[in-house]
## 1
Amino acid sequence: MTNHWVDIKNTDLVLIMGGNAAEAHPCGFKWVTEAKAHRKARLIVVDPRFTRSAAVSDFYAPIRAGTDIAFLGGVINYLLTNDRIHHEYVKHYTDMSFLVKDEFSFANGLFSGYDPETRKYDRSSWGYQIGADGYAVTDPALQHPRCVYQLMKAHYSRYTPEMVSTVCGTPQDAFLKVCEAIAETAAADRTMTIMYALGWTQHSVGSQMIRTGAMVQLLLGNIGVAGGGMNALRGHSNIQGLTDLGLLANLLPGYLTLAGDAEQDYQAYIAKRASKPLRPGQLSYWQNYAKFHVSLMKAWFGDAASASNDWCYDWLPKMDKGYDLLDVFEDMGQGKVNGYVCQGFNPLGSAPCKVKVSNSLSKLKFLVIIDPLATETSEFWQNHGEYNDVDPAKIQTEVFRLPSTCFAEEDGSLINSGRWLQWHWKAAEPPGEARSDQEIMAGLFLRIRALYEKEGGAFPEPILNLTWKHRIPAFPSPEELAKEFSGKALKDLTDPKDPGKVLVKAGEQLSAFAELRDDGSTSSGCWLFAGCWSEKGNLMARRDNADPFGIGQTLNWAYSWPANRRILYNRASCDPSGKPYDPTRKLIAWDAGAGKWGGADVPDFKIDSAPEEGMNPFIMNPEGVARFFAVDKMAEGPFPEHYEPFETPLAENPLSPQNPAVLSSPAARVFKDDWATFGKPDKFPYVGTTYRLTEHFHFWTKHARLNAILQPEQFVEIGEELAKEKGIRAGDHVRVRSNRGHIVAVAVVTRRLMTLDVAGRKTHTVGVPLHWGFMGLAKNGYLTNTLTPFVGDGNTQTPEFKAFLVDVEKV
Amino acid sequence: MQVTRRQFFRICAAGVGSSSLAALGFAPGEALAEVRAFKLARATETRNTCPYCSVGCGLLMYSLGDTSKNVRGRIFHIEGDPDHPVNRGTLCPKGAGLLDFVQSPNRLQHPEYRAPGSKAWTRISWDEAFDRIARLMKDDRDANFIARNAKGETVNRWTSTGFLAASASSNETGYLTHKVVRSMGVLGFDNQARV
């Protein structure tokens, strides 16, 4: 979230799209209720299903799963055509005026630089025109035909209300009603929040869906303000933290990135990431990359990391290709992976195309499961009848199952969607011999290290030199680890302007990432969290819920990254002269007397940069402004374009009907053998989509008796019209098939799923809740991901769980 | 109307809300005998956060059992933390069932091992598990570690073993896991955020 849960109360309009907060995030949704009750805010829900969020909305618009870019592209077209945008904000705080290279183009559904062989773009034409002074060229009048404003206007002119209705199946009048409500928030004293979740991420064009939403918000001036923002409702309790800590194939902690094979030179690696400003007077905060990186290397490798060995740059693995979850399961299926460890992750249930995942796991030599619960993955080799029909004798994988603690049996911090690092405390001992994840990781690491000490082996240096300064080496404590990632001074840190003055003494905890240095004198395992455990103590454990400014900014409750800031980009809540756009929702303002920014939040800005200096609010971007034109950052192109899901009921993309190559995303990665696993609408005519229920959480709560009682048996939702066509009555058992497998479940016949008119034909949707499996206290069922396709978003490789094709029949 | 404390409880048990009675002035008189002590009164109260979705609701967990050598603490009640700025004491149907997650009969109790081709688990000790897994990992790493690619560039990666991290483990666990996994050169490394 750019904002946070409580801040939703400050909004005028809530758009829930690609999520269903009332059921999936019920206690957060209460702030929507609060805004409705006390601010007369309106709630609009756009969803394939009439969800419980929709049930309490002021307006609901149905949409076909997987077509959100078409819908939001239509909103952009509406706002630009009718000139319902926040002019000053857009002019000063976005890239609207930037001129784009002449070589950049868009035709036939493709941007310039496409190579159909590799299904990748050469992105070199996707950039700004750079002037002789080294800065991007702009046209503040927004008249130049190559400026972002003009290019964007032309691009989205194709997204007419008629086109939106054709693609999405949303009735035109419903679409226009949504546009009108959204457009009202272009006023400086009105705002909208967008709440989305996995309903946007889990598509082959999921990242671009989210971008389109962000573009709508930027046009309206709704980013950086109280009650506004792009609010990702993360799926699990610490998905945010584990992402921030970089537990993803290509990342290091704090969104630092691993290098590719070609990046052999350390200085070049840093220079590429330490972006210089693209406009005069801009901060371009990533210029500090080296400080973050060196401090990380000092945290991991201690004295072994020095300037003379480029801070152990060679010790980090280099990337030659993707190593995301889908990629690893592909390699595993080809016999290229021998060992796999699943720590609190149940891929047999959570990864797409169960049959492929199961076959891949069967090729492993060893699989290690670390989990509090008996997961399906841990028994992928066991025959569980129709739900997991395998022959154990044929599966040669050695499997270890190690019991771990759960939340109630450990201390530590989790990060909620609002970026709050909240500390929690242990209340009981774990059952049996279960151990904490930290003890388990230590147990494995210390034994492996001992083997390398004794026997030597392949490149032992990083293992032998990994810092491990724990009082009890076999049990690194949460306190020690939190202090390590927050960071400390390794030497006395002196004031660069006055070398005699010591700012932080050697050994002291740092209070902010601004104190980090690139000379090896500081250590911080995650720069983004720096200061969460300072000399003042554990700020994540703070429990003062006072809200002195009355707008829900509890600055002394827990700790929010970065720098305890609660609302990102909050400088943009003020006009260029530093005055709040809406004084009734003031976050920060320029205090000329004091010569600094201040207010109800920690300013997301250089604290003493006066408005006259012309620094812009998006300080992480080298431009200083937000980007409508994504330059070379996105796989599919600089402007989001609608592409159909990989399994679509349509024969052509209505936006580019002449080009069959752009039916679905031309830049999504599809493994060779997976093309044949995609179904076609002649055999699988209905759109399938998966989701959560109010009463269950993923595959966990079927192990909890209360939840197993609340929702005991697997079901699917079918619209009344489809049920009638198929002769299915509520309570019948039905078989839902995709080209990859089938599930059997009880039919819930409902008006919640409507039949839509898409491109002139009726389109039915089948809803498939995801919570059942062959382990647990609820009635056994099929893993939903038996049905889903093995393809992901072109940028993140997040699987396309939300739109695929199925057939349904009465059993 | 005069009511004794017992009568007051009886009235409440008959279905009339005690708070509205008290508001009308029908407060009970002096207690004649103690009926039953609240269970929570002698419980230990511990603050936590919900491990399910990302709202991060505050929890109060109540447990019995002191820290005596032969006593195992046991949580018997979990409810929303009224001090928490987001959930203000509430929990959803998922969070309301947390006690049954903590005490689920499907909680794993001890390390187990399934041999190749076997149809069953066997119980093993932690030492056996760690020793065997460490051996498997080191042998695989030593056999397949790639120090240099075909072009002779230094790449120091280990791609024949992968690691999936969690979705609800703490930052402290996540940080330690990342540090250990990358020190070995693993690239096939993701957490649940990927899906």
Note: Chain A touches chain B through 167 residues (CB under 8 Å).
## 2
Amino acid sequence: MQFEHLIASAIMLTTPILLAAMGGLINRRAGIVNIGLEAKMLAGAFVAVIVSSATGSWIIASLAAALAGAAIGWLFSLSITRAGANMIVAGLGLNILVAGVLGFILSWVYRSSGTLRLPDVALLPKILPSGLEFVPLVGPALAMLDPLTLLAWMTTGALPFVLASTRIGLWIRATGNASEMARSVGLQHLTIQDFTTACAGFFSGLAGAHLALVSLGLFNEGLTSGRGFIALAAFYFGRDRPITTAFACMLFGALEAAQIRLQLEGLPPKLIGTLPYVMVLIALVVVSIQAQRKSST
Amino acid sequence: MKAMKLLSKSTIALCAATAVLADERPAALIIAQGGLGDASWNDTAYAGFQSGLEKTGITGRPIESPDVVAQGEEIMRRAADGGFGLVISLEWIHGEPMEALAKDYSDTSWVIMNQTREGDNVASVVFGEHEGSYLAGALAAQVTTDTSIRGINEEAVVGVIGGFKAPGIDKFIVGFIQGAEAINPDIEVIVAYADSFGDPAKGAQMANAMFDDGADIVYQVAGGTGIGIIEAAKARGHYAIGVDNDQDGLAPGNVLTSMVKRVDVAVDQIVTNYAADTFPGGEVMNFGLAENGVALSPMTHTRDIIPASYVEKVEAMKAQIIAGDIDVWDVSNEGYPDFFK
């Protein structure tokens, strides 16, 4: 087992979780817990494959996926902010609705069940020259670096500054922490919430595009496999802080990569398969204990 | 209500009429999860059903339901009440309720797939997946050391990825290992489980991990997860082996072969038996290599890139298995062998 490949694989598996988590984090900062990340990822993956096949361009495909996610996110947000839907129930409903609609389109338009396979799907390019593969330790990871992974980490790096020091960041935090106050100073807090949910959709759509276009080039109804919920756990674990959340995402990505390879070393697959979920549980327990301690002192 | 009664009466009359014609009541094929149009299990079975009906002159129709799992018992009961004399279910979950229902509907003939169920009017269909997998293993073991073939390294390492660790899946895996070791006793077969039948992203990562470890051919026994395995083989320029259907065309030239389960042959055979009044109630129908129930794909895209002698060797082994000279281990009947725990 080569450690270099493990690192490369971990980084690649982290990207979709990280993108969705960053979107969900912005959303939660504005006061909306977004259970529907999974749905937007799935829709993003679907749109990405169709557009990539039609245009042959990964950029247009990724952008279309992001916009599809944002549009779904915005509509979803309206149901919460304007129609007063419960955000958890609406989120669960969205996940079921999107999976159902995509399944319907698959069988109705494409006469296929479960998998959409189109010709000439353009995959994400590798940014750096493949000669870097021979750099020790991080070589394969560098050689495999794709633009969406880069974007995910750039977003992670920029987000603390955006949230802390820009006007829009302040508005978002004000809306989430004290929506009455925000309203009293004239902020349109519902519009800000809608904007952040669209943001969550935008990034989840990109996450879906990454899942579909990084190596597979096809859509499958099981493509997201709960990664939207892992992203949710990540920003809960990271307490809505971008950098801590990114670490949580990396932990999940590394566990997933290790799970694949540990098994080849002879560990029982069922046990390894439960690891990410056990980690989520432990993480949530730790976070809530810490929160309790804080409130009691 | 009256209209309904009238309608059902006329349906019965219609059924009676066709029954006189073909001397049998009509047949029903209950479609499993995934539905018609899956280009896989259901569609293949339906093709066999149609050809069986055409040959025998029996009438019949497929029954689809959006909730085929939870509504299983209800669907089967209605089929039996509706005058169908032969009810074939393609849904694995229907095994247990069918066993119970068959007692109440003793003049209906019942068929279940991939498992063995009790009852004088129940026929169980099982496939010889271990035999087909043996041939796949034997082919892979010959190819994996032939560096004259594009994408093959000199290491005697092949891989197999299962959906879950379960006897039904290990039946494939053990057959594959046994076939590979029959060619090369020193071959290393890397075994892993995806813990999912529907996660292609994970399948691709697992296949890549195996390619990193020196494998150049990976056998997928993992349903939708396997689609990712095939894509990974294509991306890396190595080989996958398909399962259940002829998946060679999913990545032409990168799917070495597919271990095909001929559910169409099985369904066709059952309809024919039913029409001829030789329905094998209470029996287990085994569709192995001898019955053409399992087979390797015709290798449309790969036949020309590997030496013909490899395929001939596999054909010879197939003849030996059919003749009983090679005994392939069947995990579903015999439990686990010493070489695979």
Note: Chain B has a mean pLDDT of 88.
